[in-house]
């Protein structure tokens, strides 16, 4: 794992070395969508997993509904044909993210799946396992959403058939372990990022 600086170094997180920065300055930008300023995106070119960090205004939802809301937004953004929530859990910041302020931090984790097509390929819906975490930073009214998307079943006509290395298939347990490692090292270095 290596420490990655997000949002100009205001936030640091450990990221597995198999993930590379998906910004146009690091990769051929024709392969990826435009990345908005409130997001940082990494991809694993062997497994086609994506790791997305997103700063969002705190939503009105409370407790586990926060994770449900952001998962549904992700499903809408992905134009998912189906989306299923498998579990939602509320984690204790002191156990999971010791480098974050314990007062005013809430952490929700959601495991789910979506059927989505890459590059809007009609009828080529891949099953993607998703682990989504919402780190609610109440003192700055921000939902910091971290999601790992891992394709687990590819449509026979999907363009990803050629790019996913079958020997690198991931399990949901692997994805959850990746997310827990990220949360353990998550640190806000510059609170001015939040205005």
From TrEMBL:
Per the UniProt entry, the signal peptide is none
Keyword Transport (UniProt): yes
**Out of the domains of life, which is the source?**
Eukaryota
Biological processes per GO annotation: protein import into nucleus
SUPFAM superfamilies, from UniProt?
Mog1p/PsbP-like
What keywords are annotated for this sequence in UniProt? Protein transport, Transport
Q: Report the InterPro entries cross-referenced here.
A: Mog1, Mog1/PsbP_a/b/a-sand
Identify a single GO molecular function assigned to this protein.
Answer: small GTPase binding
Q: Per the record's keyword annotation, is Metal-binding included, yes or no? A: no
One Pfam family hit = Mog1
| Record GO cellular component, one term | nucleus
Q: Which Gene3D superfamilies match?
A: Mog1/PsbP, alpha/beta/alpha sandwich
- What family does this belong to? Belongs to the MOG1 family.
**Which protein, by its recorded name, is this?**
Ran guanine nucleotide release factor
